[in-house]
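tool=predict chain=A
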Amino acid sequence: MKKVLISMALLACVSFADEYVVISNKSMKDLSPAQIKAVFLKKLAFIEDVKAVPINLEARDPLRLKFENDILNMSFSRLKTYWTTRHYLGHRPPISMKSQESIKAFVKKVDGSLGYINAKNIDDSIKVIYRWKD
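tool=predict ok
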């Protein structure tokens, strides 16, 4: 009985590991993590002749911080410095939205847009172009 309970507890821990996704509308091709990073740092402006539109969550959102650390490989302070420098060169950071639902709605309607949400929020109206876990 004890082994069964331990096994169930371990399985529960594994199933609660969060999974996150970078999403786009159905017309977007799959992108590598390096291409996704380039889009969000605005170093890659077009994907197959379509303007890339990266969408972030608000600055201190936990999922945004996870995305910046895991996908962009940049801390909040390093990214802030990056955009401050880019601002003086005439570049603006990606637009921010308040919720994963708003990102999903935007991505559905705007060609070339990319966002990130918790995998629990995906449906067949959007395309998952990259997945990562905790």
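The chain has a mean pLDDT of 90. The beta strands are 19-24, 46-47, 50-51, 53-57, 95-97, 113-118, 127-133.
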